[in-house]
Amino acid sequence: MMNLNRIIRTALVLFILLPVFSATADMDRGKVKKGIKAYEQEQWGESLQHFQDAQLDDPENPIGHYNVAQALYKNKKYEEALKSYEKSLGTQDITMREKVYYNLGNTQYQLNDYQEAIQNYIKALDLDPNDQDAKHNLELVRAKLKEMAQKQPMQDQQQQQQQQQQQQSGAEEQQGQQNQQQSEQDEQGQEKDQNQQQAQQAEDEPSQQEQSAQPQQKQKELSKEEAERILQALKSEEKENQKLRQVQRAPGRIPVEKDW
To answer: DSSP secondary-structure letter at 8?
Structure first.
């Protein structure tokens, strides 16, 4: 398996020594030397500070931008390092340009911009076909892209499954809420019906009492009529008895005709 640690090669430290001996009179060589010393001791923050101080003397110098980019990279400030590397491409030194493209590839790799990393490794190899580190990193990034392409369908499937599960979970939750709402509505409806039934029963009770009282009243009325009929019957019977007595009391003598 390829070793990812080879992406950053220690040989780049030697290249930082170039400004010390280059004809850049505007830059403070003392500051550059301090930056290089701190860099070699892996004191990345201190190294960055010295290189930035030296850059103030000659802000447009490509070597100054390159040194700052190296220190920014070591401090894992990849976005800022990328900008400084790009500014250092203004150099006319072919060897330095090759180093810049190589380190641009490294930086873009750290930023997960693999396509751009490949393009910069290729540019580095165009300037120096014998750069074994550039070849190694180029192969590594291409292999990573191939691996990602193979994993992509599986990741898409997993993502789709997760989305389906989330949708199903959301649907179940929504259904549960709807069921709960329906249950609450049913309970409210039942309670309402019970209240209406109770109210209706309360309204019906006086009417039932009135209806139950009516037969009693009718019974009383029937008793009165019956009493009248009985009274009439008694009166009629009394009259009949009187007639009967009158007949019985008819004169007992039979009139005798006189023979004159």
So the answer is: S
